[in-house]
């Protein structure tokens, strides 16, 4: 086992310390035997003083050895935890796709939080596996010295316990396996919920997911409850062991021979040995439970670490190859079990050339880039990549850091290069909008950036890396036409920054194809054709079919909108590729009579699909329209740089200002935990439950003290010959002793069950309260709170409430009542002891008052610094492909280790503080032992041996009891921080009520779909500027309205306002005359439908993703799939609607995910439909499918479309142009295009429409 190999020698050395401490523990019972004998003798006092001093120094040596042992074992455990977190993180960077399916982000977060903690806890206690049995053996040997063969009676009882506990341990382990599975499912689902919370709110699906989470939580609590009963059984068995051993031993001793008398020596030396036995026997059930937990966690971590890794040998890096990228006869699949996704690929990408990859949805375009990155399984063939790689994924990966850090990534800052890259990637204008320029913190997953901005930041990162080879997965899809044109010209194209680099570009912008060197056409995972634009047109093969399909779609849909010069180009293409008769007839009809085609101009995808000659013409025309006529000379046009340099200097040199940091720092309470936290926790117990627990522990302690006092009385019978020979009295003594001990055992079991179940009840209430508040929190909360921070509450903090606090609370009750009982007994027998005891108790109080604030704050700091570890991990898993592509794995590993080190910087001091406390507590405890022994020596003439033995044996316990009491108090207050943190999130501000009975609209509302904005203004959060200002407009029933504007104009804010994701600052919105601010949020959101920009799917079935409430029939589901063009795909799946969707929908393409969102919209079919750049991240074909369905199936609905592809809204009834949160233009598109000074006209011009 690697842990043993790495830390074995240190663990062995630490074990020797434990061995010494375990053995020296038995010195004091031996000295106690001599001391009791001394009290009953006339030996000189100096012997008594030696015995008292011997007890003190033996305890002091044990304290030193135990202190060193505990500190060192905790340090080792912490280092082991660091190592496990490190290897789990490292594994995440190299995990194959097939292995990733088995381990979701939530599950791996559990490995890093819960399972590593289990391993750490076990290492701290592992030596008890041998030291506890060793102490039991030594105790039995010493008992043999006292009671002789009678010890066999006790030994028989202990042997009987072994199979019983083995049986219980088996069930604990089985329960732990089920528990961790349920915990994984819950954490995994919470991770998905937090990632898709915006979609849940827009669809009003929170209740459905709350029920699923609570169902998982109920299963988890059921497993914990089973463990509570099993723990009660184990506690019963082990707590009864010392009593049953003592009862069996004493009974055997006095019954086997009538001459055997239980005197003070035998009674109290045996009692002190039995008390020592209580410690290992009390810890044995805990170590057994922890062993079961450890084995389960070890198995889970091993399974993860043994998961299949990406094969680094898939990609060769032979520098002698002529071309930058070479693929020969290569076949790839996503997993070893899957059928090939890419078959028999052969192509070369020469150095410095631009290669475009095109094809239909699902043809394997993105898979090709994944294969070149080494992310797929290679069945055969050869792949060689010569040089460094930069990768721009289709869905931009953004870090929770500043914009500058996202662009620089792992590189150092070169001001001139940096500004050139920002300008080329069209980020200059964005820096003006962002409050802190490039030092503005981008929220988690780029939450405060639009889809286009995220994609441009991702592209800027790639360009700045100055790699040799660029894999660009459709980077132009998420940006507006004019921005896409700028990026192609200034970055990707033949005159762009990357002109000398090798570029492999997956694209659906066919307008750029005339400017690429080579086009690769993929069909069903195979390269159908490859060549230049002109060559492929001339072949009239798959590429020509591809073009004809688009021509048919464009001409048939908008024949009246084609301009004469466009018609000439399209006819030329049709003539070159051989258009079908139907298309030829349509073109002839337009050419002969046509319609008033110059009234409306629509961007046609077919415009760019020109013949070879037309392609040259288009290229010349495109270049003539460029902002800067100068040619590139190696890099970006100098004039283009010059015009934006001054502005960029201002924006990139901004100091952080208010609003720069979107993510709020995690709040950390200071000072003592508020009494309200304890009251809330006790309230969660249930007041009656808490009362029963206190009564139970009182009775438990009463029986314990009673049995000890009874033993003292019994031992004094030996001083009276008549009493010693009275068998009836002997039987009475034995019977009462047995009854008192039996009562102690029974109440030990009952208090264990009551405490565990009450703690579980409290933990469940904490979880459910936190879940409901989190699900009802406004979006502003999620915008400013990293998901890892929230997930930390639902994983580590809830686990602390589930498990750790249970042990802490029970230990606090046990040790508190034991301390009270010990002081009562010692004071009863030796009243003078109170005079010395009271000052010592005051010292104890001040020590714990000094220690607990430090310990508590260190725990808070440790909890706060733990969240970034999980956030960084979640971020890393999402961007693993990009990290590997940029060869930044080691840098990210180092950063992860630094975060763990920061976390441990608050943990290590807590170890030192703990040892500081222990040394002082134990010294005071040994002082108590010394004083008790001295009193026994000084007062031997007035004390009976029985009373002296009882007093000193309890003094020996007091050291451990008070030590453990202070520690238990500290542990409760330290770990109650987890409760404090959960309660903090249980009191977060919430949205408006989901349902409002007073204002609930009719079921048929809205019937018309008329939307009115009346002087409406809003902001995202208090203290921020307005994002919409005095919006006033009327959208008539069944109108189709396009909403356009530059980045940051407020387009998405308008849709969020309709759903009340953001609330009005002033003004109002009405739908069919109903003021939406007066409705319940779910009453409103259930009546609106949105197809969001980012298609979010959840783990589960296709059915649950379409209909989480089970509200629709199978017929309705299949109808929606047919209308969304998914029926044939779903029918081809083995399980159909029950097809399992992986985390985030990763086993579906982006286009398919967006079509699932369309199917959701078709199911809801409300009177108002909003498309929030719904086609921004999909290919043109999927865009066509969505637009076609919307035109036909939502023709009787009011449709609002935020569009960056202007052609999708050119036939709409109205266009709203937003700028800086205000409506600056609103009219029919044809009217706006007639005004050359309009913003819409300039946008259409940039898009190539005019």
Automatic annotation (TrEMBL):
Keyword Aminoacyl-tRNA synthetase listed: no
Chain positions covered by the region annotation Disordered: 611-660
Domain ABC transmembrane type-1: 12-293, 693-974
Compositionally biased tracts (Basic and acidic residues): 636-649
E.C. no: 7.6.2.3
UniProt membrane topology term: Multi-pass membrane protein
Entry's localization field: Cell membrane; Vacuole membrane
Family to which this protein belongs: Belongs to the ABC transporter superfamily. ABCC family. Conjugate transporter (TC 3.A.1.208) subfamily.
Species lineage: Eukaryota, Metazoa, Ecdysozoa, Arthropoda, Chelicerata
Reactions this protein catalyses: leukotriene C4(in) + ATP + H2O = leukotriene C4(out) + ADP + phosphate + H(+)
EC primary class: translocase
Transmembrane segments: 12-32, 44-65, 122-144, 150-172, 228-256, 276-296, 690-714, 734-757, 923-940, 946-966
Gene label: ABCC1
Principal location class: membrane
Domain ABC transporter, first and last residues per copy: 325-549, 1011-1245
Segments forming a coiled coil: none
Organism for this UniProt entry: Trichonephila inaurata madagascariensis
SMART domains the UniProt entry points to: AAA
GO cellular component, one term: lytic vacuole
This protein's UniProt keywords: ATP-binding, Cell membrane, Membrane, Nucleotide-binding, Repeat, Transmembrane, Transmembrane helix, Transport, Vacuole
Pfam families in the cross-refs: ABC_membrane, ABC_tran
Protein name: ABC-type glutathione-S-conjugate transporter
């Amino acid at each position: 086992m690697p842990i043993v190999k790495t830390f074995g020698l240190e663990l062995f050395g630490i074990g020797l310390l434990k061995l010494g401490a375990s053995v020296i523990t038995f010195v004091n019972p031996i000295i106690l035997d001599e001391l009791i004998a001394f009290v009953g003798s006339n030996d000189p006092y100096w012997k008594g003083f030696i015995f008292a001093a011997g007890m003190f120094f033996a305890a002091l040596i044990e304290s030193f050895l135990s202190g060193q042992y505990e500190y060192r074992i905790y340090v080792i455990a912490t280092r082991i935890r660091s190592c496990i977190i490190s290897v789990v993180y490292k594994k995440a960077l190299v995990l194959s796709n097939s292995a990733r399916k088995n381990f979701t982000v939530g599950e791996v977060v559990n490995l890093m939080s819960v399972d590593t903690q289990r391993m750490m806890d076990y290492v701290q206690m592992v030596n008890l596996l041998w030291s506890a049995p060793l102490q039991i053996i030594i105790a039995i040997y010493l008992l043999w010295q006292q009671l002789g063969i009678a010890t066999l009676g006790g030994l028989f009882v202990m042997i009987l316990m072994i199979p019983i506990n083995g049986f219980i341990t088996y069930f604990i382990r089985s329960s732990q396996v089920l528990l961790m599975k349920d915990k994984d499912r819950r954490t995994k689902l919470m991770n998905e919920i937090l990632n898709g919370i915006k979609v849940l709110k827009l669809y009003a699906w929170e209740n459905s997911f709350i029920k699923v989470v609570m169902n998982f939580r109920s299963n988890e609590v059921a497993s914990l409850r089973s463990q509570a009963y099993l723990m009660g059984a184990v506690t019963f068995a082990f707590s009864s062991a010392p009593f049953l051993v003592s009862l069996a031993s004493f009974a055997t001793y006095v019954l086997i021979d009538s001459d055997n008398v239980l005197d003070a020596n035998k009674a109290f030396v045996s009692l002190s040995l039995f008390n020592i036995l209580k410690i290992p026997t009390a810890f044995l059930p805990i170590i057994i439970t922890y062993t079961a937990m450890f084995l389960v966690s070890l198995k889970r971590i091993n399974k993860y670490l043994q998961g299949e890794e990406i094969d680094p040998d898939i990609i060769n890096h032979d520098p002698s190859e002529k071309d930058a990228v070479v693929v020969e006869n290569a076949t790839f699949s996503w997993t070893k079990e899957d059928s090939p996704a890419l078959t028999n690929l052969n192509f070369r990408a020469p150095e410095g050339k631009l290669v475009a990859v095109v094809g239909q949805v699902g043809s394997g375009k993105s898979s090709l880039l994944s294969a070149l990155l080494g992310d797929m399984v290679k069945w055969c063939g050869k792949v060689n990549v010569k040089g460094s790689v930069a990768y721009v994924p289709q869905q931009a990966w953004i870090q929770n850091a500043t914009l500058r850090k996202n662009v620089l990534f792992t590189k150092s800052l070169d001001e001139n290069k940096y500004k050139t890259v920002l300008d080329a990637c069209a980020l200059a204008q964005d820096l003006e909008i962002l409050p802190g320029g490039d030092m503005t913190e981008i929220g988690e997953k780029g939450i405060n950036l639009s889809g286009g901005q995220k994609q441009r930041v991702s592209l800027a990162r790639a360009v700045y890396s100055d790699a040799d080879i660029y894999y660009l997965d459709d980077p132009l899809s998420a940006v507006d036409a004019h921005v896409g044109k700028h990026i192609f010209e200034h970055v990707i194209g033949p005159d762009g920054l990357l002109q000398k680099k090798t570029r492999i570009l997956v694209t659906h912008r066919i307008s750029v194809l005339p400017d690429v060197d080579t086009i690769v056409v993929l069909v069903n995972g195979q390269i159908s054709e490859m060549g230049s634009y002109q060559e492929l047109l001339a072949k009239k093969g798959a590429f020509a079919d591809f073009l004809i399909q688009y021509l048919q779609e464009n001409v048939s849909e908008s024949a009246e909108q084609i301009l004469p010069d466009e018609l000439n180009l399209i006819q030329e293409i049709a003539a070159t590729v051989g258009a079908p008769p139907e298309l030829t007839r349509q073109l002839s009809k337009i050419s002969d009579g046509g319609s008033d085609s110059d009234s409306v101009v629509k961007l046609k995808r077919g415009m760019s699909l020109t013949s070879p000659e037309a392609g040259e013409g288009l290229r010349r025309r495109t270049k003539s329209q460029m902002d800067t006529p100068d040619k590139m000379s190696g890099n970006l046009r100098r004039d283009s740089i010059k015009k934006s340099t001054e502005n960029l200097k201002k924006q990139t040199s901004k100091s952080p200002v208010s609003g720069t940091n979107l993510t709020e720092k995690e709040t950390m309470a200071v000072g003592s935990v508020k009494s309200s936290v304890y009251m809330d926790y006790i309230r969660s117990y249930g007041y009656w439950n808490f009362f029963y627990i206190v009564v139970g522990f009182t009775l438990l302690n009463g029986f314990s003290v009673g049995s000890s006092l009874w033993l003292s009385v019994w031992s004094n019978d030996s001083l009276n010959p008549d009493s010693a020979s009275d068998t009836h009295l002997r039987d009475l003594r034995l019977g009462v002793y047995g009854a008192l001990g039996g009562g102690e055992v029974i109440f030990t079991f009952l208090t264990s069950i009551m405490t565990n179940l009450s703690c579980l009840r409290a933990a469940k209430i904490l979880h459910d309260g936190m879940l409901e508040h989190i699900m009802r929190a406004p979006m502003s909360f999620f915008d400013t709170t990293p998901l890892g921070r929230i997930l930390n509450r639902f994983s580590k903090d809830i686990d602390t409430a589930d498990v750790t606090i249970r042990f802490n609370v029970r230990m606090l009750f046990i040790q508190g009542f034991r301390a009270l009982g010990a002081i009562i007994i010692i004071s009863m027998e030796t009243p003078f002891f109170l005079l010395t005891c009271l000052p010592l108790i005051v010292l104890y109080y001040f020590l714990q008052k000094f220690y607990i604030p430090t310990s508590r704050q260190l725990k808070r700091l440790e909890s706060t610094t733990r969240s970034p570890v999980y956030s960084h991990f979640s971020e890393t898993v999402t961007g693993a492909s990009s990290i590997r592509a940029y060869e930044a794995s080691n840098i990210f590993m180092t950063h992860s280790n630094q975060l763990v080190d920061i976390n441990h910087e608050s943990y290590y001091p807590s170890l030192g503080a703990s040892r500081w406390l222990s040394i002082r507590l134990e010294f005071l405890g040994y002082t108590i032992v010394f004083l008790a022994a001295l009193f026994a020596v000084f007062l031997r003439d007035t004390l009976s041996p029985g009373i002296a033995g009882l007093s000193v044996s309890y003094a020996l316990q007091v050291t451990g009891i008070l030590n453990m009491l202070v520690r238990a108090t500290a542990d409760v207050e330290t770990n109650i921080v987890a409760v404090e943190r959960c309660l903090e999130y249980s009191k977060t501000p919430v949205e408006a009520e989901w349902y409002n009975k007073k204002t609930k609209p009719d079921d048929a509302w809205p019937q018309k779909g008329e939307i009115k904005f009346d002087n409406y203004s809003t902001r995202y959060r208090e203290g921020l500027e307005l994002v919409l200002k005095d919006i006033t407009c009327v959208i008539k029933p069944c109108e189709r309205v396009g909403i356009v504007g530059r980045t940051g104009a407020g387009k998405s804010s308008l849709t969020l306002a309709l759903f009340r994701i953001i609330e009005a600052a002033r003004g109002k919105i009405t739908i069919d005359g109903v003021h939406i601010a007066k409705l319940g949020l779910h009453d409103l959101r259930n009546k609106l439908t949105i197809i969001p920009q980012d298609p979010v799917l959840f783990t589960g079935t296709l059915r649950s993703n379409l209909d989480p409430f089970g509200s629709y029939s199978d017929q309705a589901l299949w109808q929606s799939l047919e209308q969304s063009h998914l029926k044939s795909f779903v029918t081809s799946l083995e399980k159909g609607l029950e097809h399992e969707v992986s985390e985030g929908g990763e086993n579906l393409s982006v286009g398919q995910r967006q079509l699932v969102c369309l199917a959701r919209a078709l199911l809801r079919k409300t009177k108002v439909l909003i498309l929030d750049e719904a086609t921004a991240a999909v290919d043109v074909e999927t865009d066509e499918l969505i637009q076609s369905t919307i035109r036909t199936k939502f023709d009787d609905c009011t449709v609002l479309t935020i569009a960056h592809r202007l052609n999708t809204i050119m036939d709409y009834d109205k266009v709203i142009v937003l700028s800086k949160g205000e409506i600056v233009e609103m009219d029919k598109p044809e009217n706006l295009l007639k005004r050359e000074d309009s913003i819409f006209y300039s946008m259409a011009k940039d898009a190539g429409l005019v």
